[in-house]
Specification:
Largest sheet: 6 strands, antiparallel
Order of helices and strands: EEEEEEHEEHEH
Strand order of the largest sheet: 1-4-5-6-2-3
Helix content: 10-25%
Number of domains: 2
């Protein structure tokens, strides 16, 4: 399937609105354009709005859903940590077309073992570009949801912190380039 071509949904599918975090049902036959795909899911545009759809629902676009690969019992801490950072790089501030890692919003990310469950817990401390951001709950819930979609993650805590306050110096060089600041 060509990702640039719009497709009609083959069935109703649950989606998360990026701008508000609201769960909605996109209807069978609705025209969507896939703008991004990742192991955690798809970002689509429909009727001028942007939505996130989980990977397990790929069949709704006519994409063969890949069976969840068996996660090895002995997945390494480093492998889980990489999956966590990949998931964070797929979380966006709805008002800025950059992910939260490029924006410099993630201050701390700890991946800790939960031995009794043979799994992991993730604790993220992050900030926002402005303390009064009306989408704070949407962004933190999206981060939490993306982290919990990773196999072997059984708990994800996302804490908003305001010290130090975010500033443009926290942007990655790639982000500065995309925003025309370099």
């Amino acid at each position: 399937m060509n990702q640039d071509q719009p497709v009609n949904l083959t069935r109703d599918v649950e989606a998360l609105t990026q701008s508000t975090g609201e769960k909605v049902m996109l209807k069978k036959g609705q025209l969507v354009k896939i703008t991004k795909s990742s192991p955690q899911g798809y970002t689509v545009v429909a009727d001028g709005r942007t939505f996130d759809i989980e990977t397990k629902n790929a069949d709704a676009f006519g994409i063969e859903a890949k069976p969840a690969s068996a996660t090895p019992e002995e997945i390494t801490h480093a492998q889980v940590e990489k999956q966590v950072w990949d998931a964070l790089k797929n979380c966006y501030d709805p008002e800025i077309p950059l992910n939260i890692v490029e924006l410099g919003l993630v201050y701390d990310c700890q991946v800790n073992s939960v031995p009794e469950k043979k799994a992991y817990r993730v604790d993220v401390k992050m900030t926002l570009t402005a303390p009064g951001c009306p989408l704070a709950g949407v962004i933190t819930e999206t981060v939490r949801h993306r982290l919990l979609s990773i196999p072997k993650i059984v708990e994800a805590n996302v804490e908003l912190v305001w010290d130090p306050p975010w500033n443009q110096n926290m942007l990655s060089d790639a982000a500065k380039l995309k925003l025309g600041l370099l």
